[in-house]
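Quick start: read one record
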Amino acid sequence: MAKKSKGFGELLHQQKRFQAQQQSREKLEQRIQQSLQGKVETVHWNEGEIKTSEVLEAFVKPFLNATKNTEQRKKLLAIAAFAWNITLLPEDQQQAEIDNIVQSIAGSDNPQLEQDTREILAELMERKLAYFASHRRYILDYELKETPNDFFLSVVSTDLDSQEP
């Protein structure tokens, strides 16, 4: 029996990754269509532009090694998207939004979780402003698709000028 070439194995890997990307995009597009209740006819995937998914991945990269499973990566991405979007708000609105997010995550009966959440948000917001300040797209939603050896992130975002967060 002939051995499969390394090139064939790589081709299969690329094909599986492409299929995972397509499934992720379709699922995310359906979720956006439902959440916007017909206000958007189509979701455009801007090929050739800097992808918000790649920027978001770079944004969370220093924290990814601390995640051990899909659930932890999803939580990291959620809080990262919150922090990202908060930095795009006018300064006088940021604290109220931070308070809302901390309340929804930590509740009112866990002071340590509240403090930890505030610290994580602050660290992510500082990172956004220090390294990603020129990226002014508001993150509307995202989809994380994991494969055995990799993951794929799809992000729906909008220009800050075209929609108020």
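Residues 6-39+49-159 form one domain.
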